[in-house]
Write a structure and sequence with these properties.
Blueprint lengths: L1 H5 L2 H18 L8 H33 L5 H30 L5 H12 L3 H21 L10
Length: 153
C-alpha cells in the first residue's frame, strides 16, 4: 500500500533536520562529517527507524482503528500522536536502563529522566507526537480508510 511507503517519510525528514541542527554541534565524530555525509547518515538511520516503526506501531494501529471502525482523520492523527509520544517514552526508558546497566548506576535514574522529560522538557516527548501526527495525517490522506468499503458490511 502506497500510504505505508509515503507516510513515514516525515520521520526521515525529521531525522535529517535533527542531524543537521543538533548532532553537528555536540558529537565529535559527526561534527567532522561533510553536509552530504551527515544528511546521508541521518537519512539512512531515519529511513531504517521509520519503516521499522511503521511495521511495529503503524500497521497494528491502522488495523485496530479499522477493526473498531474509527476511520476519520482525527482518529488517525490522535492515534499516531499517542504512538509517537509512547514510543519516545519507551526509547528514553530503554536508553537510560542501558546506561544505568553499563555504568553501574542506580536504576532510579530511569524514573528521574522520565519525570524530567514529562515535567521539565515535554518537547522531548511532544516533538515525536507531532511527527507521529504528521505521519498519521499523511497516511489517512493517501489511504482514505473512510472511503473504503468494509468487508464486514
Amino acid at each position: 500500500m502506497i500510504a505505508f511507503a509515503i507516510a513515514p517519510l516525515w520521520i526521515v525528514l525529521y531525522a535529517i533536520l535533527f542531524g543537521i541542527m543538533a548532532w553537528t554541534h555536540t558529537d565529535p565524530i559527526l561534527s567532522e562529517m561533510t553536509a552530504a555525509e551527515l544528511i546521508g547518515t541521518a537519512g539512512a538511520a531515519g529511513f531504517t527507524v521509520a519503516y521499522i516503526l511503521m511495521v511495529i506501531a503503524g500497521l497494528p494501529c491502522h488495523l485496530l482503528l479499522k477493526a473498531k471502525r474509527l476511520e476519520r482523520l482525527h482518529h488517525y492523527v490522535i492515534s499516531a500522536f499517542v504512538c509517537g509520544v509512547a514510543l519516545r517514552f519507551i526509547s528514553i526508558a530503554a536508553t537510560w536502563l542501558w546506561i544505568a546497566y553499563q555504568d553501574n548506576l542506580q536504576f532510579g535514574i530511569v524514573g528521574k529522566e522520565l519525570r524530567d522529560a514529562v515535567l521539565h522538557q515535554p518537547t522531548r516527548l511532544l516533538i515525536f507526537g507531532l511527527v507521529g501526527a504528521l505521519v498519521g495525517a499523511t497516511f489517512w490522506l493517501i489511504a482514505r480508510p473512510d472511503l473504503q468499503q468494509s468487508t464486514k458490511d
